[in-house]
Amino acid sequence: MTDFTSTRKAFHLPEGIIYLDGNSLGPMPVAAAEKVAAMMRDEWAQMLITGWNKAGWYQQPRRVGDRLARLIGARQGEVVMGDTLTIKVFQAISAALRLNPGRRVILSDSGNFPSDLYTAEGLAQATGATLRVVTPDEVEAAIDDSLAVLMLTEVDYRTGRRHDMAALTARAHAAGALTVWDLAHSAGAVDVDLHAADADFAVGCTYKYLNGGPGAPAFIWTHPRHAKAAAPILQGWMGHDAPFAFEPAYRPAGGIERMRVGTPPVIALAALEAALDVWDGVEMADLRAASIALSQRFIAGVEASCPGLILNSPRDPAQRGSQVGFRHPQAYAVMQALIAQGVIGDFRAPDVLRFGFAPLYNSAEDVDQAVQILARILQTGSWDRPHFHEKAAVT
């Protein structure tokens, strides 16, 4: 049984703050500062360029990927770290398109994160493919034998709605299509099992529920059946079979190594390693059960004390990730007032108050206090002050 009291102590949580925004950026693990400092002090400063061999920097993307693998239902040697999530989305879609010649349709949904849609749109324009976007509820019916790639974010960033990965993958395969799953709001939040779902490609970031820090590197997973054939359009030095032979032509490495692109972000990966230390004693089934308990408690509390808010997430927790959204016509100002009172969630346009629940550091007491503060802000109208309506660059 996972001890969430112990994991909470592993994070730096500022005094007086209730943090319900781990679905945007996880808090800093206490050990991260020393981990990064040690890397800079003992490795970079002392070893200089020899750190690529002596400290294992070159192997770090695979080593960290192996540690992350169990959290997403992957196996050792199947996950590699590096670059940004957008780059990994680009790699996965382009590789899937090449594996499915003769078909040029990419299917996604309107609940997908805009960056994923932008990437797919650009790829479609560059390759002669077509991007088809439907509502989340229309995805299953839209899968037909014209489809090359089904590209979805498993958990909707705005509503928390969770797609049935296994069912949609099976339907896509039956139609002759491949699947690309974005786990940005799944990894570290829900019980992902890529092998059980028989997915083809998966990508994700590590700065949300995995707590790797702002700008932490993304990951990519390829099903072993595609590992020797996947050929993404973006071909980088680190994905070459022999990078230090400096051959003029590209020759892809074997397995997941071919999905590497640029020089790995060694300092950022050090911080992520500190975050993954916290996960070593966590069972995903325990995490999921605790997450559901927290989100259900929050929904019940808000609906009992904040009648002006409208639930913007599936009521059934089985159809929801680890986040909950409520709608309010002045959601931005309400959220700023809430943050000013020490409860940090976030706003998503046009009218959504969004809250993420992470049992590693969130408790039932956090939920109850957050509900009480939110109810007081709405009842008193204290949100309706000019400075709460002034939008910052990052919302």
From TrEMBL:
Its EC number is 3.7.1.3. Catalyzes the cleavage of L-kynurenine (L-Kyn) and L-3-hydroxykynurenine (L-3OHKyn) into anthranilic acid (AA) and 3-hydroxyanthranilic acid (3-OHAA), respectively. It comes from the Bacteria. InterPro entries: Kynureninase (IPR010111), PyrdxlP-dep_Trfase (IPR015424), PyrdxlP-dep_Trfase_major (IPR015421), PyrdxlP-dep_Trfase_small (IPR015422). Belongs to the kynureninase family. Its cofactor is pyridoxal 5'-phosphate. The keyword Cell membrane does not apply. It comes from Paracoccus tibetensis. One of its GO terms (cellular component) is cytoplasm. This is Kynureninase. Pfam families: KYNU_C. Homodimer. One of its GO terms (molecular function) is kynureninase activity.
